[in-house]
Amino acid sequence: EGIAVAEDRIFLVTSGGELLEMEEGPPGSAMSYRIHRTGLGRGCEVEGLAYDPQERALLIPCKQARARNLRKHLVVFSVGLDSKEVYPVPRVYLPWKELEAGGLGSEFHPSAIEVDPATGAILVLAGQEESLVELSPGGQLRGGVSLSRKDHPQPEGLAVLPDGTLLIADEGKEGAGRLTRYRPAPPPGGGGS
Q1: pTM for the complete prediction?
Q2: Tens digits of per-residue pLDDT, 50-104?
Q3: 3-state class of 100 per DSSP?
Q4: By C-alpha distance, which of 153, 142, 162 is closest to 180?
Q5: Cβ(121)–Cβ(135) under 8 Å?
């Protein structure tokens, strides 16, 4: 349900919250991996995975809450890179009402997450609701945007390049998938051509 590169390791996450950890190997080689059971699957179905280098933590959003205290919230858990333990307090615990007040829908089911390498901002994409939110590194809502169904029929992937370019990947419902690139706005008064 998600992939992230953290320092010299590659991580995958399952919908039940299991982390698979491996090192990159030479082309064509088979590499061994380790499984870390986070226990997150008891409280929610997870989708998405990102690495936060400032906190040296993996970020895992809750797509569908099973636990009562997680319902009707945007929740992102942090897992220590070295310990593989879930931090006791979620990194993000934001009521859907706050998202709705910001002009987004009344629900939010994450499908992807990414950390902006330049600012540390947390970006969370909700494919089902066709929405993208930006959170501060501490998890406070900075803003959000609804995505056009025409441009994003099924947004499922997200990446931020070092130059600030945002990439959104859409699954191909009845054909080829799509990758859309959004370049950062030039600085005010920057001129440019």
Answers
A1: 0.90
A2: 999 999 999 999 999 999 999 999 999 999 999 999 999 999 999 999 988 888 8
A3: helix
A4: 153
A5: yes
